[in-house]
Design goal:
Layout: H1 10-32, H2 39-51, E1 55-56, H3 57-64, H4 68-80, E2 84-88, E3 96-100, H5 102-119, H6 128-147
Antiparallel strand pairs: 1-3, 2-3
Helix pairs in contact: 1-5, 2-5, 3-4
């Protein structure tokens, strides 16, 4: 029998459930991503679609909370596949900006469709209204956690 977790503080229990869901969803996502795309690649493509093109490597790394060398590696892999284009920063001679290509946008759409297709059979018992009702709380929680990051600028959405 599993240990009794009923005495855990509600906020901890909520965050624990979210962490488990994220782990399970990421594993499922990785299995269905198209053409060898990895979850770390999808996160960058998704970020650029949601937040807009022309973001610096450092800003993307901060937003997805990885070290800059790891982000540089991810961006290089995406660029080699033709999914992003890296160009010079117009005001910072050393900086570079990342832009999605049409192939990158298409890969993100394909990944979203694959992920949705993989999760839909599992969530047949969930009512659309339940899902929509959960979003405001989750978005507020994400925003609060994002705003509390040490020394980082808040990012509206990853």
């Amino acid at each position: 029998m599993p240990p009794d977790q009923s005495q855990d503080p509600p906020l901890f229990a909520l965050l624990n459930e979210i962490a488990i869901i994220e782990h399970l969803a990421r594993n499922r996502l990785e299995r269905v991503l198209p053409d060898g795309l990895r979850a770390s690649h999808f996160v960058v493509l998704n970020h650029l679609v949601r937040m807009g093109d022309g973001r610096s490597l450092a800003r993307i790394a901060r937003a997805v909370q990885v070290e800059r060398p790891a982000m540089t590696n991810t961006i290089q892999k995406l660029e080699a596949r033709g999914l992003v284009h890296v160009g010079p920063h117009p005001t910072d001679g050393r900086g570079k900006l990342v832009f999605l290509t049409e192939a990158g946008r298409a890969a993100r759409r394909e990944a979203v469709a694959a992920a949705t297709g993989a999760i839909t059979p599992i969530t047949q018992g969930f009512d659309q209204a339940e899902i929509l009702a959960a979003l405001p709380l989750l978005r507020r929680l994400r925003a609060a956690l994002d705003a509390a990051r040490d020394g980082d600028e808040p990012t509206p959405e990853v």
